[in-house]
Structures are given as C-alpha cells and as structure tokens.
C-alpha cells in the first residue's frame, strides 16, 4: 500500500464503475494543449475510442481534436479547450 500526499494525488482520478476506463481517466487528466496517444494495445474493445472521447467532452465541457495519428498506427486526442 502507498499513501500519496496532496501534491501527488491532485491530478489523479479514480476509475469508477461503468464506462470509466483507463483512457477515460487519462482524458480527464489532460490539460489544455496536451495530447493523449492511444495505442491499439491500450484499447482492447471492438469499437473505436471516439465515443469515449465524445462522452468525456459532453460530460465535462472539455473540447478535443481527435483522430488517427499521422502514421495511422495509433489514435490521438488533443485537448483544445
């Protein structure tokens, strides 16, 4: 077990039951201008990660630019607002 101080835990979001996945939690932690690269090995469901990105945007008011990376191997979500 480990106890984190306030500084270490200020940006951590617990994974809640239901639709909250690790990618969902990471999207919540993004600051404006930061980009999350999602590798296929990180995303194991049949659907694409776009519905999860849209769900975070709808529930939080965050704005994202998202799509495939230029090399086409991964997905990316950049927080723009």
Overview in brief:
The chain is of the alpha+beta class. 28% of the residues lie in helices and 17% in strands.
Layout: helices, strands, pairs:
Elements (H helix, E strand, L loop, with lengths): L5 H4 L12 H8 L5 E4 L11 H11 L3 E5 L6 E5 L2
Antiparallel strand pairs: 1-3, 2-3
Question: Could you characterize the architecture of this molecule?
Answer:
By secondary structure, this protein is α+β, with helices and mostly antiparallel strands. It has one domain (19-79). Helices cover 28% and strands 17% of the residues. It contains 3 helices and 3 strands. It has helices at residues 6-9, 22-29, 50-60, and strands at residues 35-38, 64-68, 75-79. Strands 1-3-2 form a 3-stranded antiparallel sheet, covered by helices on one side. It is globular and about 40 Å long. The mean pLDDT is 86.
The profile of the biggest β sheet is: 3 strands, antiparallel
Write down the overall mean pLDDT: 86
Query: In what range is the share of β-strand residues?
Result: 15-25%
Radius of gyration: 13 Å
What strand order characterises the main sheet?
Answer: 1-3-2
Order of H and E elements: HHEHEE
Q: How many individual domains? A: 1
Multimeric organization: single chain
Q: How widely separated are the two ends?
A: 36 Å
Structural class call reads alpha+beta
**Helix share bin:** 25-40%
Low-confidence parts lasting 5 or more residues at pLDDT below 50? none
- Total beta strand runs: 3
Shape estimate: globular
How many helices? 3
